[in-house]
Amino acid sequence: MSARPERPVAIVTGATNGIGAAVAERLTADGHTVVGLDIEPGPGIVACDVAAIEGHDALVASIEAEHGPVAVLVNVAGVAMPQPLRDLSPATYRRQIAVLLDGPVFLARAAGIRMAERGWGRIVNITSVHASVSERNSLAYDAAKGGLEAATRTLAIELGPSGVLVNSVAPGFVRTRMSIVDGVDELAGSWFQDRYRDGGLLPLQRACEPSEVASAVSHLVSADNTYITGARIVVDGGLTVTF
Asked: How far is Cα 157 from Cα 189, in angstroms, rounded to an integer?
């Protein structure tokens, strides 16, 4: 197996805001050369719709041509389009599956094959507690996150012999733009405050900050992680251990 590069090149999707921005900032501080991908513009961001899977091989090749071999991939980009089952449309369903599952899988394929050829790499997929516990109006989102965790395990099996470790990080409530649903911040409303913060369903009694998710990612992609692969790290303040 090869050694970790001196200054690893890291691709982070969804890097313009929220968890993606926090991960990009943390990995930069850790000494990575970070290439941020996002459909939204931002400083230093490479324009990319992760759902456009046919272009992922060429995208990774172009990043490597400019910055050097990619050693780390963190799939963060996400979209949530809540709809009750009766109103769930094929377009809404397919868009969420495309962004949350297809895109990460094919980026992991494009980057992971190259990492495997060099004998070192780290891939982290940001999933969700929705991968194992579900919520009404979230069929497509829940299915995609569950699928990405299954894909993470298979990627770990296939890439592990070549020195590439693949894991997922599953957040619960996180203070990002995705907590705004239909123009309302669910973390500021009585639904969250009464049921979760004060009602005993969230032991830490607060939402997660994006930097706290980034801390978990930081360890998984670091040289200190030499034996964790195929794992799911839950960052949810105890949400999923309550009854």
From this structure: 42
Sheet of 9-13, strand order: 45-47, 33-38, 9-13, 70-75, 121-126, 164-171, 232-235
Q: In the structure encoding, which two tokens stand for residue 55, read together?
A: 């272009």
Residue written as token pair 């050829």: 117
Residue by residue, DSSP assigns 203-233 as TT-SPBPHHHHHHHHHHHTSTT-SS--S-EE
Angle at 56 between CA 53 and CA 58, to 5 degrees: 135
pLDDT at 82 over 70: yes
SS3 72: strand
Amino acid at 182: D
Q: Which residues are catalytic?
A: 141
Lowest mean pLDDT among 7-16, 189-198, 201-210: 189-198
| pLDDT for res 178 | 79
Cβ-count burial 213-222 (b if 16+ within 10 Å, e if not): bbebbbebbb
What would the two tokens of residue 230 be? 């195929």
Taking alpha carbons only, the member of 167, 171, 230, 233 closest to residue 202 is 171
69-81: average pLDDT: 97
Domains of the chain: 9-172+208-238 (3.40.50.720), 179-207 (no CATH)
Residue 200 has pLDDT above 80, yes or no: yes
* Beta-strand pair 9-13/33-38: parallel
- pTM exceeds 0.85, yes or no: yes
